[in-house]
Amino acid sequence: MLATAYEEEADLGDTAYDNAAKLLKLGSQVKTGVDTTCLSKTIGQRRFRTIIFQFPNVASREALYGQNPNHVLVTRFLKSSRAHLKSSGLVVISTVDSPFYEGAFRIDEAARKAGFTAPDIYTFNPKDYPAYSHQNTGDEESAINEHTAFATFVFSA
Ligand SMILES: C[S@@+](CC[C@H](N)C(=O)[O-])C[C@H]1O[C@@H](n2cnc3c(N)ncnc32)[C@H](O)[C@@H]1O
Fold this sequence. Notes:
Radius of gyration: 15 Å
CATH superfamily of the largest domain: Vaccinia Virus protein VP39
Bound molecules: S-adenosylmethionine
Strand content: 15-25%
Number of strands: 6
Shape: globular
Oligomer: single chain
CATH topology of the largest domain: Rossmann fold
Mean pLDDT: 93
Strand order of the largest sheet: 3-4-6-5
Order of helices and strands: EHEHEHEHHEE
Largest sheet: 4 strands, mixed
CATH class of the largest domain: Alpha Beta
């Protein structure tokens, strides 16, 4: 397993730093400074059975190329992931399940642009993952506490 963070090591918060230490102890690899929109830059040619991005979010609504930046992030993540999937591999994304978030991500359109068919959709219930705690981009709060419905999208290679 390879666990990644967007931030460089020096910028990791205490929780992320502790989590990284726990993961290393459990035998996982940990890599910081990994941009999910261009994975090859930091992870080389490695391929995985499953690539997971829990709650992608850029914490901005400023349009990028006329598109919602979260749609751009997810589209580029999916495109980038394709080159790092083993055959029959899966890409998994969870988001808040609400019309507002669907408007931001436009998941089906992102899938199409990245060459995936429409994903399978499952309910994501944080209670099923007691050791997982969600953290917002840019602060120590959690959107999980502000919303009631979440979805996991599974894209097949
Ligand atoms: C809402 S937080 C979720 C964090 C964590 N995955 C969780 O489930 O609690 C969104 C995360 O996406 C990361 N992010 C945004 N753009 C990214 C990019 N281009 N590559 C990698 N991570 C990115 C942010 O740094 C932030 O940690």
